[in-house]
Amino acid sequence: PLNLASDGTYLYAAGTNLEGSSDPNTSPTGLSLFRLPLAGGAAISLYPALEPMQLAVLGGNLDWVDPFSDSGSTQILQALAAGGGSVTAIYSQNVNPAIVSGTGLATDGTYLYALDSSEGQLYRLNSDGSGLAPLGGARYATGPQTESIAVYQGNAYVLESGESSLVPDLVSIPTDGSGPYTTVWDNSIGPFIDPQCVAVGNGMIYVSDADPATGQVTTIWALPVSGGNPVALISGAPFNNISGLTFANGALYASDSGS
What we know:
By secondary structure, the protein is mainly β. Helices cover 0% and strands 47% of the residues.
């Protein structure tokens, strides 16, 4: 799996479809979007996906952001979360050039929030893709880098890997645009190495991070939403390469692309 989201009943993940071209839900890149019960069980393929990044579930729809897509540029795509429907682009850079390299996507149950990794600009948009509006300003001008977003109790939490800006950090901003960014954790003193994914729930922020010895993402840090020192929740086994985090029904879920 590549990324992970939940509607409280199911988990939705993007990953390689082992059925290959025999499954019509397999894309030319070999990837599909899958659904499986939150309690565990068989995964079923829903739709083909070329280069899906973060996923979000809103109003019975599954949304995902793809920085390349069929159009060759960023699109936010939408289809029925239950499967069986058509895939529609609710945002396309070819129509509105605002989001250059979309990687982050999240929802608060009313709006979608999209993150442009080319400069760290966050946007809010309606569930049908209309009303695209920036929140805060661009965060850096050093080029694309891995970014992830989670929304919790009126704030968007933005994780920046530091791959181009050189300093990883974790910031928050009110989703209603009523205030500026606030630094939750400044990584100038560590401990993040190459943070990849963020999830928030029950007053805690969870960040997946790389092991400096192996380069694989096998650590999950935890810190309060109010700030504080990150503490390693788990490091190493059973993880080989964490590729997604989401929080649902009081529990943290992680997908691992190396297991």
